[in-house]
Structure formats: C-alpha cells, structure tokens
Amino acid sequence: MIVASGLTRQFGTRTAVDDVTFDVRRGEIVALLGPNGAGKTTTLRMLAGLIAPTRGTVTIDGVQLTRATGGKLRGRIGFLTESPGLWDRLSVRQNLRIYARIYGLADPERPIDAALDTFDLTPHADARAAELSRGMRQKVALARALLHQPAILLLDEPTSGLDPEITRGVRRLLEERRAAGASILLSTHNLDEAERLADRVAVLQGGLLALDCPAALRQRLTTGRLLVRVAGDPAAHLDAVRRIAAAAAVDGPHLVIPLERLEQQTPAIVTALVASGAEVLEVRPEIPALEEVYLRLVNEP
Amino acid sequence: MRALLAKELLDLARNRVALVPVALVTAVSIVVPLIVIVTVPAMTGRSLAEGSGLADAARLLGIATTLSDEALTQLFLFQQFLLLFLVTPITGAMSLAAHAVVGEKQARTLEPLLATPITTLELLVAKVLGALIPTLAISVGGLALYLAGIAAFGEPGVFAQMFSARTILLIVVLGPAAALVSLQAAIVISSRVNDPRTAQQFGVLIILPLTAVFVAQFTGSWWLSTSWLLVTGLGLLLAWVFLVLFSVALFERETILTRWR
C-alpha cells in the first residue's frame, strides 16, 4: 500500500506538486490524470524514492520512504519510466537478466522466460534492444518492471506507443497483478484506459483536483441526460416530464431530460410519460464520458 | 554491483571499437621503445651506451651492475619506457569512464537503474571497474608482448633483469592504483557535467602528473625507487577510497534526473 501525505515538490520557485495526499490500496489500480506538466512524473518519481519531496511523506507498506529505507523499499517497487531506457547494445534477455540480478532473483532465467512469454517477446529474446520497434521497447520495459513480481507498481504511461492488441494484453496483465494484491499507480493521458482499468482516478494539476472512482466523479461533477423518443409531438408531453426534471427540453424528435441521478430517476420519467398518454418508442441514457469530467476539472478556474 | 559490472563488460564486448584507442596506445607503448632501443642503434650502427652516460646513471641507481654497458643502457631505457604502461589504461579508459554516468543519462537508462535497490556506491564502483578491467587486460597483454620483444631483441641478460621488485611494484601496484584514481576522478566529473565531451576534456588533465613523473625519470631528477613506489601506490589507493566516498557524496540523483537534458 502506498500513502502519499502532503506531498510537495518545488524546483526553485516553481511548485511542480503541491500538497498532494492520496493512497493506493492493496489490490487497487489508481490512474493519475492531468495535463502535460501537471506533476504526474514528479509524483511518481517521489513515490519511487528517486527525488525527495520538499515537504510531505511517502509511506510504503507502513514504512516511511527515506534515504535510509529507500534502497530496501525500491526492491518492492516496479517502476516504469517515461522512456523505456534499455541498454541498446544488449539483447532483450541480457537487459532483463541484469535487472533480475540487481533485484537478487534466485533463479533469474525462470521469471525472464515467463516475462518474455507474457509479452510475446520470446522470438526477440536475442535481438539487440536497438533493433526493436518503439512498442517492443515499451514491452521490454514493462517486462523489466514486473520481473520481480513487485507489490507496488508505478507506471508512467504504460501503454504509450503500444498497438491495441498489446495494450489489451497489458491491461489484462495489470488486472492480474491487481487480483494478486498489487498496488498499482499509473499515469496516463488515455482517459478510456483510465476508465476501463482504474478503480479510482486522481486528477492532478499541481495539486490534487479530485480523487474518486470514475462513476462517483461523473455523478458529482456532471449531469447525465435521458433521451426519450415518443410517437407524435414530443412537446405535448413536456409538462409531464418537467414536473420531475424542470430543465427538460425538446430537441427534434426527442425529449432531452437532464438528470442528476440518471439510473434512479429514469423509471419515474417513463411512468410520468406513460401516465400522460405518451407512446414511448425509445429511452436512451447518455452518460458523460470521463473526458468531460476531466476537462471540467482541469479547466475550472 | 556484480550485475552492473557484468552489464558494463557485456556492453563493451558489444562495442569493441571503444577499445581501439587503448589497443593503439598499447601498441605504441610496445613499438616505440623497441624502435628507439633496438632498431635505431642497429640501423645506425651506433651503440646506445656510447657517450650517453646512461649506463653510469643506471649503476649509480643500483640497477643490475653486473651487465655490460650496452645491456645496462638498454635495461635502463626499457624500464623507463615501462612507465608508458601506466598511462595506457588511463588514456584508453578515460573516454569510457568520462562517458559512464552522463552517457547513461543521455541514453535515458539511468532512471530505471536508479529506481532499483542499487546504491550509489555500487553504481560508481561498477562504472570504474567496468572501464578499468578491460583496459587493464589489454595493458597486461601489451606488457607481455613488450617483455617478449625484450627477450627476442634485447641484449643478453636484459630480459631477466626486467623482473625486479621495482618492475613488479610498478605493474602490479602503481599501474592499477593510478588507473583507479584517475578513472574514479573521471567518474566524479562524469556525474557532475551534462556533456560527455566536457567530462573527457577534464579527464585528460589527469595525464599531466603522470607525464611529469615520466620526464622526471628520464632526467634523473626523481627516481621511483621501490620504497617510493610502495608509498606512492598506497597513497594512490587511499586517494581512490577518498575519491569513491567523495564521488558518492557528490552524486546528486535529483539534479541528474531533473535538470540534465
């Protein structure tokens, strides 16, 4: 489990991360969202013990991350950096083997073979890293981060540069690690990925703007809409609907009804329409995408 | 540390061109003395000992007084040129050491490495040894060829007299110690500058004191006796330990990760 408490980092007069407090529980994936320069990479680096916070603390599995505890705690962390950072002249297997030895794995070849297999890298095991495509390099870097089965995973844009098939494989792998109890914090610009994968999302822009599960954020920050198509003129039924949702309006053949609690209020709307004699042809809920929540958060003054 | 040292050696094995300067300096260290001491006198028909006074100088220094003047002069000169083998690992490995930290940063391989349990001490010592071991191996190979050349072309008795306590101390203690110090200094510089060229330019300055020793030997103003060699060797090893601690203290992970581009 990772706990960041009041995490602040200044570079000269610039504050990159400002008083950020959050946790990542065991068996949980938290997605770190934010525009470029929002402090995502700095936050991940502080959590990995690569740079020290100006203020605040990081605690990993109950142990505070300090200079003295850093070495030991880093052994429990799998860190995927922004750039794959492979040794170009070494082969894929050699790259992994060096890290396996650094992590002190007793029988390094077995986890290396497993990692190569997981990421479909076995045919490329003896290829030099320099010969690999960007996606392949990213896969090797991911395999490297997962090699020692870390309890904590800090991943800076894990699916960046990967094709959809491999991206899906990576997601599946992260879900497996989550099921195995790992605490996973990943930064991403891919909101769809955050929505699919993360239990909670943290929106960062210097400070922490929001931290919650995507559905809760959506409910808190946006309004869903119900689109209803009825036989005949929809305006004839507007008054019946407005008794429940005052902001309801007509848009072409549809009644457009903004609702704060879409799921709970939909039956009442349909009942009211039927009671007013409407022949309901279609009921379609429109749930705002996480993107809308995100844009609203980062663009709020 | 062994894992990282293995990486350094593997990396170099895949980039043998980086060792060409070491091989060239070694080749020059073998060929030049043989040309000066054996080939030139043979071609000109003039004895080395004739009028040079080097045999007398050697006798004054207590070097193998039983040899003939010509053999003694050869021995004196071969021993002086032996100092070139001190310079070989340093000059050759300098570019490797200078590139060590800043090169990793530029290749973006440093950050994942620093995110592992590896300590700064392990990282920096592995970098030094990674540069030292292959160049020292080439240097030792070159030395063997140098001695073989003396055995083949030197005056009788010269080869046997090369194996003195002084020679052994020079090769076994002073050479590696001087290389360790200079390469560690290069590593310090490499972790403080953000351009390998700058690191290498600073590193070259380390050659200056060695050149001074070389000149002092030839002019006779300072003779590296066995006791001097022992003291210097131990001093250099202490200096290396100090430099290792100094380089660990100076290694700023944050600055390297956040400010270097």
What does this structure look like?
The complex is a heterodimer of chains A (301) and B (261). Chain A has 301 residues and is an alpha/beta fold. Chain A contains 11 helices and 14 strands. In chain A, the strands form 3 sheets. In chain A, strands 6-7-8-3-9-10 form a 6-stranded mixed β-sheet, with helices on both faces. With 261 residues, chain B is mainly alpha-helical. Chain B has 13 helices and no strands. The relative contact order of chain B is 0.14. Chain B starts with a helix and ends with a helix. In chain B, helix 5 runs antiparallel to helix 7 (120-153) and helix 9 packs antiparallel against helix 10. At the A-B interface, helix 2 and helix 3 of A face helix 1, helix 6 and helix 13 of B.
Query: What fraction, in percent, of the residue positions of chain B are helical?
Result: over 70%
Low-pLDDT parts of chain B are none
Stretches with pLDDT under 50, minimum 5 residues of chain A: none
The largest sheet of chain A, given as strand count, sense and whether it forms a barrel, is: 6 strands, mixed
Distance between the termini of chain A: 33 Å
CA-based gyration radius of chain B: 21 Å
How many helical stretches of chain A?
11
| Annotation, overall tally of beta strands of chain B | 0
Judging from the principal axes of the Cα atoms, what is the shape of chain A? elongated
List the chains of the largest interface with their residue counts: A-B, 32 and 26 residues
The SSE string of chain A, one letter per element, is: EEEHEEHEHHHEHEHEEHEHEEHEH
Annotation, overall tally of beta strands of chain A: 14
For the largest beta-sheet of chain B, the strand count, sense and barrel status come to: none
Question: How do the strands and helices of this protein lay out in sequence?
Answer:
The complex is a heterodimer of chains A (301) and B (261).
Chain A: E1 2-11, E2 14-24, E3 28-33, H1 40-47, E4 55-60, E5 63-64, H2 67-74, E6 77-80, H3 92-102, H4 109-118, H5 134-146, E7 152-156, H6 164-179, E8 183-187, H7 191-197, E9 200-205, E10 207-212, H8 214-221, E11 224-230, H9 238-242, E12 249-251, E13 254-259, H10 262-275, E14 280-286, H11 290-299
Parallel strand pairs in A: 3-8, 3-9, 6-7, 7-8
Antiparallel strand pairs in A: 1-2, 1-4, 4-5, 9-10, 11-13, 11-14, 12-13
Chain B: H1 2-13, H2 20-44, H3 54-60, H4 69-81, H5 84-106, H6 110-114, H7 120-153, H8 158-162, H9 165-190, H10 196-204, H11 207-219, H12 226-250, H13 253-258
